């Protein structure tokens, strides 16, 4: 179905009878994308989902596990049978031709109109060789397939706002790469993996990790190799839980700040290096998804030369500082406490590396060893040192982004929103200026509680009772520590009163006279 050039075609109408290919559909962003497409574009024909067998689970079993998530409850309730439009395709972006069989390739080539490419390794500390294979070679292999698609109207590539984090101002354009992507690919292919690892810090330069480095190179590959394909790039910043749909607060992973907030809610994460006054550029996952869907629509109905880039960020329109984010999270952690708390949830960001290191030892490392020692003595398996190790690894990955600030331009995003009809703007909202941060953060904490920790609402009264107990224990322990400091340090170095010194001198004088 060809869109009419002189007539507004709604987003849902554009997707009517069209087949979609999604890579990375089993990931956090991919799941929400599939659900939204099926629910808000009900006339869509098929969604082909590239899936690889994993840990003994076949592709059909993995799709069934994906659909078993509460994320799809609303869809099942409102449109029974809609999930039958999901067609799993066996494949792997790390393999030649994406690991797709010849018959499946022919199916995709002859039917697919829109491609969403969200498959990537999002591990910040991933080995450069694997990051190149997934984020760069996977993108190239998908491009080769897209060049053969007769009906292709839009290819939307999911990048990251931080792929150009070596610049303070990031516009919606593809910047020159730090290296020729082809040479980086060749290096990882012929060099020994240990040598590549040794050279990685030198290669990535001012960028903090292999993820943003390879994402920057992948964008340039798209520019150079897409030819006349209708391509667009969406760059989200730090993606958090859902804002409105399909479930407010929905989140199903520990990535980014979520893992640290979850640990803080349990009381065993209390400090991180962070500049409180800097903007935390955070975006809800459903904002990203709505922008992706509308970007594909715009790319198809308003075909232009070149690749349009969309910075999906919040800092320029609706900023929130790291202090406001952290304080807000603790406010709602106290209002809706987690079960199984080990200590009273409290903590703060620290801008001094020395202060953060001291507090990390005092509040994280030392208690972890103490708890594990107690667990070992009582016949239980020590786990806290390992958990703290993972948390510190996550903190190290986030540290660069919590101690730097960028200005992301997003004129293309605003123009796209203005291009939509009022109905489409209501169905696919991505105007971040409408988000109320306190309300969103409350849903975020409730989402962590419900979807990550699997705690039901009826457990809240018991958790609040435990929180009150821990608060008094926390308060009493602080008073005891302050008293100990006062007794052992302040009193020891406090000068003796004048009359006491005079009495002491008189006694010494009498003693010396008696000896003489």
What is the strand and helix layout of this fold?
Elements: H1 11-14, E1 19-23, H2 28-40, E2 46-51, H3 59-67, H4 73-78, E3 86-90, H5 102-111, E4 112-117, H6 128-146, E5 154-158, E6 169-170, H7 181-190, H8 193-204, H9 210-225, E7 231-236, E8 238-240, H10 257-266, E9 271-273, E10 282-284, H11 285-301, E11 308-312, H12 322-335, E12 348-350, H13 353-377, H14 384-402, E13 407-408, H15 411-419, H16 422-427, H17 437-452, H18 460-490, H19 498-515
Parallel strand pairs: 1-2, 1-4, 2-3, 4-5, 5-7, 6-13, 7-11, 8-10, 9-12
**Major sheet characteristics:** 7 strands, parallel
Helix content: 40-55%
- What is CATH's topology name of the domain at 11-251 and 281-318 and 408-430? Rossmann fold
As an assembly, this protein is: single chain
Structural class: alpha/beta
Number of distinct beta strands = 13
Name of the CATH homologous superfamily of the domain at 11-251 and 281-318 and 408-430: NAD(P)-binding Rossmann-like Domain
Tell me the name of the CATH class of the domain at 11-251 and 281-318 and 408-430.
Answer: Alpha Beta
Overall pLDDT confidence: 90
Strand order of the largest sheet: 3-2-1-4-5-7-11
- Identify low-pLDDT runs: none
Shape: globular
Total helical segments: 19
- How far the N terminus sits from the C terminus, by CA atoms, comes to 118 Å
Radius of gyration: 28 Å
How much of the sequence is in beta strands? 5-15%
